[in-house]
Amino acid sequence: MASPRHPMPASPSMKMEDERRRESDDEDMKPLMTEMESKTPREIPMGNAPDLGFVGRTISNNPEFFAQAAKFAFCFFGLQASYLTWGYMQELIMTTSFEPTERVPTGKFPSAAFCVFSNRFLAVIVAMIAVKIRHGSIFSNNSAPLWAFTPCALSNTMSSWSQYASLKYVSFPVQTVFKSSKIIPVMMMGKLLKGTSYPIGQYIEALLITVGVAIFSIASKTPKEDNTTNLVGLILLLMYVFFDSFTAQWQDKIYQQYGKKNVDPYQMMLGVNTSAICITTAGLIITGDLPIVWEFLAANPVVLKYNIITAITSASGQLCIFYTIKEFGPIVFTIIMTTRQLISICISSVVFAHPISLKAFCGAALVFSVIFYQIRRKYNSKSQRDGGGGGQG
């Protein structure tokens, strides 16, 4: 019986020949593999894949621009919904004559500071919950210390108080004109606090928006018998414009100093309102408003409901404010808030059938023309940058 044949051990020369053969096979496969790996999804046939159409192709070719556009739309409509409601409730609280009390015989709500306090109280609660959910703790993960938020917390408190208090002294058109004139003071405050330089064209655009909103606001309101402006009211409105301009620029400065990645809108909201609640509480105690407000709310419980609605819309509005300033800066935020004055009167005209005069229409056309021009200019500038970068690559 023949013994089984064992394979002969391979010699070193045979091993080297096998390795060369395998390497040759690998080299033959590489062009095919490289070609397949380098193909993009567009180069590989997709069979009967549906055509995305013009809109789909435009979005796919400009994903960053349309992502920013979606963020801007969220900021715009969030701010409008929150602060249109907040402004209506604010005016309702401060101008309505309620049931008189022993300490408040006029029946007018006695404390603008309490309105600010109620807004900040709910905002602190919302911010704490949001920061806890997002970061796992309330204060330990904050890169910016609490004292960094104190200046804008003080200015934010003072601007809100001045706005509430001014409604007792000035007419609605005058207050609207002052609100719509914030863009230029915001730019000046940016120059003062951060050394920001704005091109002359941006100052002209800000001036045109201010003029347009002022024309629309005044021309859209029917004159009232009591349309006088008190000196105290003018001082309060000047305080409002100054403090509000400071607030937006200081918040932007915090984002720049500590980094947008290290301070999110919820931490900003928490830091500002924590300081603000301390300031407003101290103010209520010092002025002795607490027992007066308590007595007034007991006689007029509907005012408490109005304050709660105001606090909710103020909290949602603050979330939108901090997010808008972080993503787009204080100038864009101020433009959005300025157009809110115009939109509020448009809604009033539609709901209550108030006619819009030719002067008001011209003011509205001026505002929207400047805003659309800004959007077009920024889009063209971005397209040119992207095109230039692609040519160099």
Automatic annotation (TrEMBL):
Keywords: Membrane, Transmembrane, Transmembrane helix, Transport. Residues 1-10 have a biased composition (Pro residues). The chain crosses the membrane at residues 69-89, 109-131, 197-219, 231-250, 270-294, 306-325, 332-352, 358-375. Residues 1-31 are annotated as: Disordered. Residues 15-24 have a biased composition (Basic and acidic residues). It comes from the Eukaryota. It is a multi-pass membrane protein. It is found in: Membrane. One of its GO terms (cellular component) is endoplasmic reticulum membrane. Its main location: membrane. It holds the Pfam family UAA. GO terms for molecular function: 3'-phosphoadenosine 5'-phosphosulfate transmembrane transporter activity. This is UAA transporter family protein.
